[in-house]
Design goal:
Elements (H helix, E strand, L loop, with lengths): L4 E5 L3 H13 L3 E5 L2 H11 L3 E4 L8 H8 L7 E5 L4 H9 L4 E4 L4 H17 L8 E4 L2 E4 L4 E4 L2 E2 L4 H11 L5 E3 H8 L8 H14 L10 E4 L3 E4 L6
Helix pairs in contact: 2-3, 6-8
Length: 233
């Protein structure tokens, strides 16, 4: 029988050691980490069945980790945090967490929640989003937020990357102006079509593979934009 794998990330060494030891004693494979970047790296390397994640951590906090992972991973996430205000619970769940356990916690409650998330994961159909997208000369590593063209890194601003990410993850579908503006900038910007036009222009220049290469972003006149995944055609 396959041993289930759990990644545990907490910057408090004593809690990290305690949870890791208890999980190992129950027969799980455990990979510990102490900051947000390690959390993402461990998920990418080990494709775990579950992630236990603290909120307040150095380098990258738990909320940002949840958001980054949900760009490409369906791994169940249980947040374990000393924050007990409902606003933190809501923000964690909205960022992609599946459950929230407050510190200090009862050991048996935590392990009951672990079992519940693992059971639910087994019952779901596998719908893991690829962490790396490739199409001809273009490669996008969603976990590292890295874009390369013809094996050379393309330097994108955070906004340019967010637009490209939305287009690629909806490849072949038309993304309306309002949809892109809302997802990248927020609902108060849904009428700022000129914003979008400028950034699309910058993206096209940076992703231009040359005269004989594919044109990745096409304009749907008066509607929006579409990423053309030439590799799937």
């Amino acid at each position: 029988m396959k041993k289930e794998t759990i990644v545990v990330v907490d910057d408090e060494k004593s809690i990290l050691k305690y949870i890791s030891q208890q999980l190992k004693a129950k027969g799980y494979n455990v990979y510990p980490g102490m900051n947000g970047e390690e959390a993402i790296s461990l998920v990418e390397q080990h494709d775990p069945d579950l992630l236990l994640l603290d909120l307040k951590m150095p380098v990258m906090n738990g909320l940002e980790v949840c958001k980054r992972l949900r760009e490409w991973s369906k791994v169940p996430i249980i947040v374990i945090s000393a924050y007990d205000d409902v606003e933190y619970v809501v923000e964690a769940l909205n960022s992609g967490a599946d459950d929230y356990v407050r510190k200090p916690f009862h050991q048996e409650e935590l392990f009951a929640r672990v079992k519940t998330q693992l059971r639910r994961a087994e019952e779901r159909p596998s719908q893991q989003v690829q962490s790396v997208f490739r199409c001809g000369p273009l490669t996008i590593n969603f976990s590292r937020r890295q874009v390369t063209l013809n094996d050379e890194e393309v330097k994108l601003t955070p906004t340019e990357y967010s637009i490209l990410e939305q287009l690629v993850q909806n490849a072949g579908k038309v993304m309306t102006h309002q949809m892109l503006l809302n997802r990248v900038w927020g609902p108060e910007y849904t009428e700022e079509n000129e914003y979008l036009r400028v950034y699309i222009g910058r993206l096209r220049r940076k992703l231009d593979p040359g005269p004989n290469g594919p044109k990745f972003i096409v304009t749907e006149q008066g509607v929006g934009y579409r990423f053309v995944d030439a590799c799937s055609q």
